[in-house]
């Protein structure tokens, strides 16, 4: 798969850092890091003992994407809940969170800190395509698992040179396919305007959308990009409005998602169907715009919305809300980012519990051998599945529409593997 300029720059940055630290960086197999014996003999046990597992996470707790930072609270609450229940196979989890401010060079610094100073077992959850791209060469060379990264870039599943890294959420191409199918079925002659972030995230989803529309009557008639350092997207939205498109596809991170939704609401002369990508669909993004101004907006999801009354009696959602109040009292249970953190942490629990060897190699292999694994916070019909040649754990999503003060699911879950075929390496 062709790497973009961002990935090439990140790789060059990492190469320079690795050269500078080659003399004192461990390459994964210290003499003491040997499993007890048998098939596991010689594998890495850094960060794991019979009683503990030490995990690291890198999130933008500050900076332009800080809205995502609360995901770490959902993750931490889950691990604290599990610890109080006896841990994972008897092991208590220590979760070390570092802030990269959504800056790739800072992500590199924090990844090295977690591996070389904190001696973590795995770097679970690097958030964002730029930060993940900046550190995956380093982590793979160090043979440190990088499971379930918090980004849907398709490269995490199509690149076979980084076996220690894998995604979790539906990749951006899969998400784009869901929107494309919806438009082809419901608005077969639609004209679409697209606002997208000018990086691998935005280009990946836009590219997948164009490909999924091929041969249909739905056309992309206008596109505008923005940089994460831009103060606003008002100029881009004004330009897109002039297209008079029937649909606005909004491929943004939370800050810019709010801005785009607000600009759309103010422009009474343009009334497109507004589709906002999943990563900017949280109520925390919509609330500042005013719920009355986002009625009818469409998105897609794959896990249960804790604010949706239909899940009020759901055992997992009830456990999540109770645990969040107990272990992260400053975190809003209705915030979907917190629910995301809970869901991805419980997915890692499944992988850790399934390890054939209690080693880094054991986790690397476990996340690539998932067989329709059920996770309580995922929607009915959505499971985790990976296999040789398929490194995308989740590829099923369901559409939702904002009505009143919450999202409401509609239609049936769309398994994009079956609808469009698997993404291949």
Automatic annotation (TrEMBL):
It comes from the Bacteria. InterPro entries: Leu-bd, Peripla_BP_I. Keywords: Signal. Gene3D superfamilies: 3.40.50.2300. Pfam families: Peripla_BP_6. Residues 1-22 form the signal peptide. PROSITE patterns: PROKAR_LIPOPROTEIN (PS51257). Residues 52-403 form the Leucine-binding protein domain. Belongs to the leucine-binding protein family. This is Leucine-binding protein domain-containing protein.
